[in-house]
Structure prediction request, 733 residues.
Amino acid sequence: MRDSLPMKNTSATPLGAGAKRSTPSGGLQAWLPRLVLAPSVAISLFFVYGFMLWTFVLSLTSSRMLPSYDFVGFGQYSRLMANERWWVASTNLMIFGVLFVVICLAIGSLLAILLDQKIRQEGALRTIYLYPMALSFIVTGVVWKWLLNPQLGIQAMVQSWGFESFRFDWITDPDMAIYTLVIAAVWQASGFVMALFLAGLRGIDDSIVKAAQLDGASLPRIYWRVVMPCLRPVVFSAVMILAHIAIKSFDLVVALTGGGPGYATDLPATFMYAHAFTRAQIGLGSASAMLMLGGVLAILIPYLYSELRSRKHG
Amino acid sequence: MSTFKKTTLALALAGAALASTAQANEVEVLHWWTSGGEARAANVLKDLMESEGYGWQDFAVAGGGGETAMTVLKSRAMSGNPPSAAQIKGPEIQEWGELGLLGDLNGVADAEGWDELLPEVVADIMRYDGQYVAVPVNVHRVNWLWANPEVLEAAGVEMPTTLDELFEAGEAIREAGFVPLAHGGQAWQDATVFESVLLGGQGSEFYQQALVDLDPEALGGEQMIDALEDFKRTRELMDEGMPGRDWNIATVMVIEGVAGFQLMGDWAKGEFTAAGLTAGEDYLCAAAPGTEDAFTFNIDSLAMFRVTDDEELEAQQALARLVLEPTFQEAFNLAKGSIPARPDLDMSEFDSCAQQSLADFQRTAEEGGLVPSMAHGMAVRADVQGAIFDVVTNYFNDADMPAEEAAERMVSAAEAASF
Prediction:
């Protein structure tokens, strides 16, 4: 997912195109941008695409502690498919990903709409909601680990108020622990989604809203039928960014649950890390990394496709 | 995936940055003895080497229980430039041996009489294909039960010597208002408790069959089911704040009198000592219930890589010799809380727990019962160990999984992990 960034930077070279047009004499100037960009292109080709290819090659071998080139075809993939923990990790990613994206969008857009009502102290409130994004997932994970710990956090606090029967011990329950990841991640990212939506809302022409008001539409109706459709590009970018965060999630799991209880909150990223680096199964780890890449591409390709298509039409 | 790439990149960079070769007459030692006491202990070895006129190039890589160090070691080995010696333990020594990267210590071993000095089980781990490739640094005992005497007194219980007594004592401690068994819900801690319970309930012979030889009949049999059920019962002795808790936090619960017991290896002693407590008075140690005739060991060792330079080879052989010498063994193990790898040392400097540990080490080495710790990577390869961890921790945390199913999964874990 990170890989797409250098690509985009290098493909869009308005600087070079502009230089060519404005100074006909500048042979060097035409070449300079390409020359300057060449090292970073070469580096990303090697370190990103080269290693991707290497990972794929390794996933076809029986590599254990160190890479070896004893090819076993798709044997590692069939082992992966037979691995129960991999399925737990994949299912978890589905649950976590969908809930994380949907809840973030819902909370983020709601907050943005509320903030958009020309209230006082908007700047301060916006900052407060946006601040969690400034924390790393490790910090979020550790803080929420304490909050969710039944003997230290929310449960203990509410019980000490006298509600003895209050229970909130999801983090100890293998069936519910995955939702604690959603809680922590939503807390962190929904402020960011709010900022995106807020920027989108500010970009909407006031006259459209006014026209709708003249036609007698109620405020909720205006937001639902007029404003939200205008924000489609914002929703789209938000979904893309959130989906990436979800698939990349590694540090949050490590800090919050450590993959536990048992391996109930394992995600593909932690699965891959555990197998490739601590369990001396580089082949199996590479195979899981390739499947993750497949998952990323499944999201990225439609995104790029629609981006490019809209650019052609625009 | 991005993490994988980041790590690969880090590997490549580390390999390039650290590719400074050891000079002649010098050993480069990769280790992760980086905490206060351990670093002092490693320094003893450095001073010994230097007093004999050899150079010591320290290559300490902190973090992650050696995970980071192993990653760096792999990158060095892949770039064809391994250090002279590295802290590698258990079956991993065999894996490095298979790659043909380890050197030969038979010369030193013969001269120093390692065959007589080391218990057979330990010597086996240090040999690859019949020749010594590594030298043991220390011995940790894993099957310990630690206790807070004040809590035991308040609950009116004694140190348990069988699993049944442990469960009874646990009940009493709970009624007295304490947590019976301090534990941290991490896979390796679950596995540590599991192997001690299995050893206590089923004996060292079964332990050997199931967790070392990976005999499918033992792994899926009645005894395993019993062991798993005992293991699940220990969960009732734990508190609900355990998820993700680190082992030393659990030890602090015992120190502070919040909890009565902890099942943990003897590195826990470091925490008691750091809190200024005296063994036998302020805290109690005993073999895990039912395991007084057994000893699960976790041995740190230095494996020697093949070197071509004659002078470096000489320095490396000297290093191997010095590691097993009494001076280093005593100084290092006093600092680290473990016991010397050679059983013939004067132990008067050590505390009562360590003395008991060494006595048991010698006794079990002679009478049987000395077994490698599965939870600490001494018994089976990393992939099998990981697969067993998965089963153990999943079963322990899943209230609905019957022991029969866990035993079945144990069998398939041992099979599926190897390719």
